[in-house]
């Protein structure tokens, strides 16, 4: 019997369910459904990785190293595997795992079995998460991989958060422009105001706000490569007198007050233990009556929040120390910091569509991406973006824009009355 039939039988024994994909093993044998994408087990190293890191991390290592792959539609393959991968109740029970070990060892080959993790995996460091030094390293792991690579994936907008799509919007660049403009309108920006962009990325929002709304803007990032790119864009547009980019932690910003603060796709890096401090610092940086736009990915609440665990693949290869929280907790902590939450807009479907555009850009430019960052890192980005798109589509995670105000003493918010003044321009 070839390897593939043995692997399929073993997998179904472990999972207690049929394998929904065809499988092709390193010896050329195949087994499983005849139609649809094919799961490729290119080398017995894949089994060694899973044996010594059972679960998602072992599978991730095999994927990143190229020992596992998918032939055909990646979305279709991930959709077929979704319930098996994401449903924690489907995890193999200990007796089934123990019973499968002899067969796994036989297929994995002779000793020694351990395999070094791919070098793209971040090294876990002792000590508490979300210190300024550790956050700087985590951000560098994800963002300092080359601006050319991000240009390929993100397109000309260089915006790394979900776009806002309208009924007649088919172009990613237009949808990202609509998102930037929506943020500026929600913040009520006017000429001469000061804007702080926390986690400014490659400078797209501060540039848009300075060019279209006449503000003076400060953008802070922990990524040196992002800062260099943003400064070049600002100089090219002759805006160095009105836009400043700093390599600086948000906890080091002391030159408030600002009329408005934007935090777009940054709060996921803050962590639960630091979130109250984050909210309080942003409150202090706002002038009375100033507005905060907090754009943040959210997860579903759990019956017992102590059960929350950071996704091991994301933590090891994508966003080290990144944490997601339910939107209700986020709103509560912003309010506890003294901010008045005035609007919440859910954009879950918008992010799914944006991610599919990024995946398409990556796949169309695959050879160049591999030249820029290597095959392993390109594989990391393709998997995490495709899987994230499905997570948003299935409602497992969402993304929300929360608009809040630092209340002035007289209680005057200066926000428009209902209906939302900014909605008609994006509907």
From TrEMBL:
Keyword Lipid biosynthesis: no
Pfam entry (one): CMAS
Highest taxon in the source lineage: Bacteria
Domain Polyketide synthase-like methyltransferase: 149-407
GO biological process, one term: methylation
Single GO molecular function: methyltransferase activity
Compositional bias of kind Basic residues: 124-136
Enzyme Commission number: 2.1.1.-
PANTHER family noted in UniProt: CYCLOPROPANE-FATTY-ACYL-PHOSPHOLIPID SYNTHASE
Protein name, as recorded: Cyclopropane-fatty-acyl-phospholipid synthase family protein
Source organism of this protein record: Streptomyces chisholmiae
Organism lineage: Bacteria, Bacillati, Actinomycetota, Actinomycetes, Kitasatosporales
């Amino acid at each position: 019997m070839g390897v593939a039939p043995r692997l399929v039988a073993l997998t179904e024994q472990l999972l207690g369910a049929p394998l929904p994909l065809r499988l092709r093993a390193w010896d050329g044998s195949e087994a499983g459904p005849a139609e649809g994408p094919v799961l490729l087990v290119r080398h017995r190293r894949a089994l060694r990785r899973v044996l010594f890191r059972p679960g998602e991390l072992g599978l991730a290592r095999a994927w990143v190293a190229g020992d596992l792959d998918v032939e055909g539609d990646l979305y279709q393959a991930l959709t077929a595997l979704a319930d098996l991968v994401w449903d924690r109740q489907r995890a193999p029970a200990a007796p089934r795992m123990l019973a499968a070990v002899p067969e796994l060892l036989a297929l994995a080959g002779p000793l020694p079995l351990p395999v070094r993790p791919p070098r793209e995996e971040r090294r876990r460091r002792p000590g508490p998460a979300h210190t300024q030094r550790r956050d700087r390293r985590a951000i560098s792991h994800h963002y300092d991989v080359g601006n050319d690579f991000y240009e390929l994936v993100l397109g000309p907008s260089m915006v790394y958060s979900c776009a806002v799509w309208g009924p007649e919007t088919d172009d990613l660049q237009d949808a990202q422009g609509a998102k930037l403009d929506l943020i500026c309108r929600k913040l009520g920006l006017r000429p001469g105001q000061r804007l702080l962009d926390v986690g400014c990325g490659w400078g797209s929002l501060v540039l848009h706000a300075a060019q279209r709304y006449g503000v003076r803007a400060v953008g802070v990032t922990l990524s040196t490569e992002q800062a260099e790119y943003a400064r070049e864009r600002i100089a090219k547009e002759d805006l160095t007198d009105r836009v400043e980019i700093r390599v600086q932690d948000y906890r080091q910003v002391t030159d408030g007050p600002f009329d408005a603060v934007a935090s777009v796709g940054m709060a996921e890096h803050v962590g639960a233990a630091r979130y109250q401090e984050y909210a309080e610092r942003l409150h202090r940086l706002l002038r009375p009556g100033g507005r905060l736009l907090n754009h943040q990915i959210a997860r579903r609440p759990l019956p017992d929040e102590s059960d929350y665990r950071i996704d091991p693949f994301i933590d090891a290869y994508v966003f080290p120390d990144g944490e997601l929280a339910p939107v209700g907790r986020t709103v509560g902590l912003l309010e506890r910091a003294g901010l008045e939450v005035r609007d919440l807009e859910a954009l879950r479907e918008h992010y799914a569509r944006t991610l599919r555009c990024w995946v398409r850009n990556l796949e169309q430019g695959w050879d160049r991406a591999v030249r820029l960052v290597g095959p392993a890192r390109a594989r990391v980005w393709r998997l995490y973006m495709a899987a994230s798109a499905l997570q948003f589509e299935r409602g497992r995670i969402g993304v929300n824009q929360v608009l809040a105000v630092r209340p002035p003493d007289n209680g005057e918010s200066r926000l428009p009355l209902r209906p939302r003044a900014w909605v008609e321009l994006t509907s």
